[in-house]
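User: Could you write out the 3D structure of this protein bound to thiamine diphosphate? I've included everything you need below.
Assistant: Certainly. Input first, then the structure.
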Amino acid sequence: MLYNKGKLSNETLISLYKKMLKPRMIEEKMLILLRQGKISKWFGGIGQEAIAVGVTSALTSEEYILPMHRNLGVFTTREIPLYRLFSQWQGKASGFTKGRDRSFHFGTQEYKIVGMISHLGPQLGVASGIALANTLKNNKQVCAVFTGEGGTSEGDFHEALNVASVWSLPVLFCIENNGYGLSTPTQEQYNCENLADRGKGYGMESHIIDGNNILEVYTKVSELAESMRENPRPVLLEFKTFRMRGHEEASGTKYVPQELMDHWAAKDPVDTFRNYLLFENLLTTQIDEVFKAEISAEINEHLQKAFDEDKIASTKSSELNDVFQPSQYEEFEVTNETENIRFVDAISQGLKQSMERHSDLIIMGQDIAEYGGVFKITDKFINHFGKERVRNTPICESAIVSAAYGVSVNGMKAVMEMQFADFVSSGFNPIVNLLAKSHYRWNQNADVVVRMPCGAGVGAGPFHSQTNEAWFTKTPGLKVVYPAFPYDAKGLLATAINDPNPVLFFEHKALYRSIYQDVPTDYYTLPLGKASLLKEGNDITIISFGSAVHWALETLSNHAHIQADVIDLRSLQPLDTEAIYESVKKTGKAIILQEDSLFGSISSDISAMIMENCFEYLDAPVKRVASMETPIPFDQGLEQQYLAKNDFEAALLAILAY
Ligand SMILES: Cc1ncc(C[n+]2csc(CCOP(=O)(O)OP(=O)(O)O)c2C)c(N)n1
């Protein structure tokens, strides 16, 4: 191994050596503990320390790093007290996740580290979001994100690099090419000579770096970081290295040819650098022994502290309380001035006034800037707020959701417009795994609203008509809001944006230009989780939300004799169960009308909840009315047949006659 000291001081060299020695020695200790059954699982980074240590040392302590499962050196170089890491791995309270997540699956704002979720790829988009916020704050910071070569096969890799390049975001994309992704060798993972070559395809500068050479890593990354702080741009780095142990310890390395192991063992980053330092008389074996003894004592002391710590204890209520960040609902005074506007205008106003109120709020979405969005909700927004805050995105839902999370991690707020709610499937993973679980996992909120233009009745076929709220009401950690009227839409959107938690905000397209209402011109909010009682009557409780609310009202208008409580849920998570139970206990009958197909939908849960909580009050079985169990057809005749609207009247009359 050729080491080139360049202008680095001897102190820097020794410091880099000690920084590599520490994760190496921790890992060696972990392997012993694993054999003794004292820890359960271990993903080793032995042989790859130079990358984590070199990159982390090249960044300032204020700059975010997003490591992966083999980057212990990031955590130790940021000088996290070791007992906290050990406690984290043992699921104890001094860790970072209250026992809720394992190994390196955590972040810490204190040390500006954002840990991975298991899915690997979303991490890259989060880095783009963090870098976007850095750029908007003009703080001249870079951030670094890691991936293995296996992770580069995920679409998220492509999306994140593309976004970072289009937006000139200062991200160091660090690929640790260590030869294998679990058991899969590189030639089965990708078909190009070097992954760095892909930089060209993204219009991005890229470099290949010897990942086992600490001086090359540190020098090159330091130079790049310095230049990127002044001249923001993403850079793709491919670190050539090797995974010297199994994917995780239990899985072994049988599939790795011995020659390969031997070849890379000779290039061990710690051993070769030690030999270099010894050869250059910058280190002696005696001093090396002192370093090792010091680190060993530190490890043992901190390990004991972690072992001495009690097993984690919690209660069901404290677990439930940590799913969302507590949010304080704030109400605002409004004047009497109102305006008769459409649903679409109300959303646009709510969004615009929120942009005025929160200078740290940005909106991202396809075609939302000059074009104003396909539904024109953000029409002319760029004239008021500029292109920095009203951002056209490439077509990459996953990276933008991840980036929105990154923006939030870096202290700002983000609204993302899904062009159609149907396309959320392309951003599903980061919503349900990153946004939803973040607060529970490591106390990091995701201050993101995803706007979801949804629903059928407009002849748009299977991919532009879905109302897919049930995909999200199922997932703890997400709030789901679904207004049916302009007044509610404007106030609830403002609240959703104020709320520091992730909110899926459903906007029914069929309502956009058909429903008018007098709406206050001022900024105002409405509380989430409060249903609205649209009509009062003792015969039956009709529960609905979104477009279906209007179907129910239309049906009732043809049956003046029916006296019904009509509950518009307005928000599905949190759900106003009190309003539902109170009404059902009064009327003794309940019918739930929704646009989505039936199975596994929110109406099924509401029905079960009524059964469980109001059984003694019921005079008839609870009825669910929903659309057909088919995809949504294009032809208007077929679509009308599909929709639950036409089934509602008969079902309502049947229950009333029960
Ligand atoms: C989306 C997804 N698919 C599969 C896995 C299972 N898995 C975890 S790590 C891994 C290999 C990753 O290889 P690479 O990115 O090269 O990183 P390395 O482990 O080599 O450091 C696999 C297949 C996963 N965590 N997430």
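The radius of gyration is 28 Å.
User: Perfect, thank you.
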